[in-house]
Design a protein that fits this description.
The complex is a heterodimer of chains A (495) and B (187).
Chain A: H1 7-30, H2 37-56, E1 63-65, E2 70-72, H3 74-95, H4 98-101, H5 108-127, H6 131-149, H7 156-187, H8 192-199, H9 206-222, H10 231-238, H11 241-266, E3 268-270, E4 276-278, H12 285-304, H13 309-329, H14 333-361, H15 375-378, H16 380-394, H17 400-414, H18 418-444, H19 457-475, H20 478-492
Antiparallel strand pairs in A: 1-2, 3-4
Helix pairs in contact in A: 1-2, 1-5, 2-3, 2-5, 3-5, 3-11, 3-14, 3-20, 5-6, 5-11, 6-7, 6-11, 7-8, 7-9, 7-10, 9-11, 10-11, 10-13, 11-14, 12-13, 12-18, 13-14, 13-17, 13-18, 14-16, 14-17, 14-19, 14-20, 16-18, 16-19, 17-18, 17-19
Chain B: H1 2-22, H2 26-46, H3 50-74, H4 87-110, H5 125-132, H6 137-158
Helix pairs in contact in B: 1-2, 2-3
Classes of the chains: A mainly alpha (495), B mainly alpha (187).
């Protein structure tokens, strides 16, 4: 059939990650020892090999492989590198985390196996070209996430987080599957291209709107957009901090990748002028513009009231989803490039901020903002890095967050969505207030204890590694912008 | 003749689905749901989709319902009856169902859904397995990985704690429940 060995050349990085998952499980079973060095090493080596394979063979054109189920193109390549990077960094930060590797913890080996599976699922999500793969890859990432959320199973909060995550996830998966079945019923096709061909006749009406709304519900849950965000703060707070760092970056970004590919391949076409246009009957930008506005406003308003740093970061991550949806609403290459740029930057600064939480969590028991009092005097380096990530999250120069937000707001303004861009700027001003509450605690509140906190060496090194691109991309951003533009070319140009 | 069976099984399926969501006792609901599944399976059978009909009975009426009943029984009888639904939620639900039903009706009436006629070998075990191992091979393999990770998760979350692993955290003399429910609140 249309399943050949030559496909393997394009699917190398994914295949390696899938294999890494199995090897991590096996490696943990055949070796004994408390530190679980084998699965950890397997994950690092597997991720590195996968990264090298991906970098050696960047796709030069769009390849539909494995029975047309997945497409490897520049877009997939962009996200592939991002997910591998996220997996590598979060694996390293988990290794020194008390919450995962502490003496009283169990199942450390499985953690790395699950991280490998998560990475594999996310890569497939970004490549899916068929609603069968869409549902399966989303489910692969979701199920792995449920297990990770409940990883600290003796902790009541972790179990509660996992339960909430499962319940929300099951409902939204069911709703999305119903929406996908409507797409199949309307067009008789499961591939994105087939759906576009089937819909271009211009029939569908009410059923099509319901189908789009239902699919949005499924994806909206994954990226935690309002009104599907309720699980986010509880899960980020209840799950172990390294897991929260993964959730805030990986699956959320994968949800965006999946959404962009699905909506732009299945529901948008090039019109005669070479710009993008919606298929007849398809109306989602207005729905999404409202979701975007609601998401960023609600995320920011809720973040103001939080005293727990983790809940604050959770709500701030919801607000960032709102900003990024802004670029998705705009039907243009610029809007999408802005989203890709921001996703990259967002991953770095969010993992950075969560890394500070992870590092402090090893030593300090509380996670309230007050527990960060005087950090600027006790751990000047960590406090400075945290401050950098916070101003980047706010979107102030000279950080990468500023450039990312600039592109997003500019794309919205360019498309005539001025009200959305202005709302975005206003929201950024609001976010300055609550981010600076953490900064104020770190620098202007005297510490209760004196002396260094004593953080893991690995965490300090990782913090610096993440801080460098946050700063560098703030002044020298054009390579990343070009990479984002180039990644989109195959998706939007050739269809 | 086929029309008669369609309306017979269809009506019974809808009525038993309504009974499923209106009964207060979960066990009663579960049995109505099984009955609903059986009728849907009969509908599949009248469409000559025998494989799907059999799978519907084996997987839904069989495995999944047994699991439902097991969990319901396991949780005990006291807390079994459900509360009355919130009228707002109920109203929203009715409206949503109405909108979807209306949309589907219009779509069916418009006649724009043209699925071609299928041959007698369509949907047989041979045809489905050929598809699974050719076009959908990757999806099939991914499902395998999905089941593996679910199994890892089940073992991880449900296994009893290792003896003495965290003796300091477990209160002395605490009754140890069945595997999977012996959660200890984090102090």
């Amino acid at each position: 059939m249309n399943f050949t060995w030559s496909d393997a050349a394009y699917f190398g990085p994914e295949a390696v990650m899938g294999l890494t998952f199995l090897l991590c499980v096996l490696g943990d079973l055949v070796t004994r020892g408390r530190r679980h060095v084998v699965p950890f090493g397997t994950l690092l080596v597997g991720t590195a090999i996968s990264l090298v394979l991906a970098l050696l063979h960047p796709p030069v054109s769009s390849h539909a492989i494995l029975g047309q189920m997945v497409v490897v193109d520049g877009f997939a390549h962009f996200f592939r590198l991002l997910f591998l990077g996220i997996t590598f960094v979060t694996a390293l930060l988990s290794w020194s985390s008390r919450e995962i590797m502490g003496r009283d913890r169990e199942h450390q080996g499985e953690f790395y196996a699950l991280a490998a599976m998560l990475c594999f699922g996310m890569m497939v999500m970004a490549e899916s070209a068929d609603i069968v793969m869409l549902a399966l890859s989303l489910e692969a990432v979701s199920i792995t996430s449920y297990i990770l959320a409940g990883f600290a199973r003796f902790s009541f909060r972790s179990s509660e987080a996992a339960l909430k995550y499962v319940l929300w996830g099951a409902v939204s998966s069911a709703v999305m599957l119903y929406g996908l079945s409507l797409f199949y019923g309307l067009t008789g096709a499961t591939s994105y291209e087939g759906i576009r061909a089937g819909l271009s006749g211009g029939q569908g009406g009410m059923a099509l709107l319901v189908a789009i709304l239902f699919v949005m519900a499924g994806i909206g849950y994954k990226i935690s957009a309002v009104p599907f965000h309720f699980w986010t703060p509880d899960v980020y707070e209840g799950a172990p901090a390294p897991v929260a760092a993964i959730f805030a970056s990986g699956p959320k970004i994968a949800g965006f990748a999946l959404m962009i590919r699905f909506f732009y391949v299945a529901l948008v076409q090039d019109d005669s002028q070479g710009t993008l246009a919606l298929l007849d009957d398809v109306q989602w930008p207005w729905v999404l513009a409202i979701i975007s506005a609601a998401t960023m406003t609600l995320g920011n308003m809720a973040a103001i009231r939080q005293n727990s740093v983790r809940r604050l970061l959770a709500y701030s991550s919801i607000a960032h989803v709102g900003y990024m949806l802004m670029g998705f609403v705009v039907l243009s290459a610029n809007g999408l490039a802005a989203v890709l740029f921001y996703l990259f930057v967002y991953a770095i600064m969010t993992i950075g901020a969560f890394l500070v939480v992870v590092a402090l969590n090893n030593r300090v028991s509380g996670e309230e903002i007050d527990d960060y009092a005087g950090l600027g005097f006790r751990e000047p380096l960590v406090a400075a890095m945290m401050f950098l990530f916070l101003i980047s999250l706010t979107g102030l120069p000279p950080t990468a967050g500023f450039i990312g937000k600039f592109y997003l707001f500019a794309a919205a303004g360019e498309a005539g969505l001025w009200w959305l861009a202005i709302l975005g700027v206003l929201n950024s001003v609001v976010s300055l207030y609550y981010y600076m509450r953490i900064a104020r605690a770190m620098y202007f509140t005297p510490p209760e204890l004196s002396g260094r906190v004593g953080l893991a060496q690995a965490h300090l090194i990782l913090l610096v590694v993440l801080a460098v691109p946050t700063l560098v991309l703030g002044v020298f951003w054009s390579p990343l912008k070009e990479f984002a533009d180039q990644s989109l070319r195959m998706l939007l140009g050739g269809g | 003749m086929q029309g008669l069976f369609f309306y017979l099984f269809g009506t019974v399926a809808v009525i038993s689905a309504l009974l499923t969501i209106t009964r207060r006792d979960p066990v009663t609901s579960a049995f109505w749901l099984i009955f609903c599944f059986l009728n849907v399976a009969a509908l599949f059978a009248t469409l000559s989709a025998h494989l799907i009909a059999v799978l519907q009975i084996l997987i839904y009426a069989g495995a999944i319902m047994v699991f439902f009943l097991f969990v319901t029984m396991f949780l005990g009888k006291e807390k079994r009856s459900a509360e009355r639904p919130n009228p707002v939620v109920f109203g929203v639900g009715v409206l949503t169902v109405g909108a979807i039903a209306g949309g589907l009706m219009r779509l069916v009436r418009s006649g724009s859904h043209d699925f071609g006629e299928v041959g007698p070998e369509h949907g047989t075990i041979e045809a489905v397995s050929r598809l699974l191992l050719s076009n959908y091979l990757f999806a099939f393999e991914l499902t395998g990985l999905l089941l593996t990770v679910a199994m890892v998760g089940a073992v991880l979350l449900a296994r009893r704690e290792a003896k003495g692993a965290r003796a300091t955290r477990t209160p002395a003399g605490a009754p140890s429940g069945p595997a999977g429910v012996e959660e200890v609140a984090d102090a």
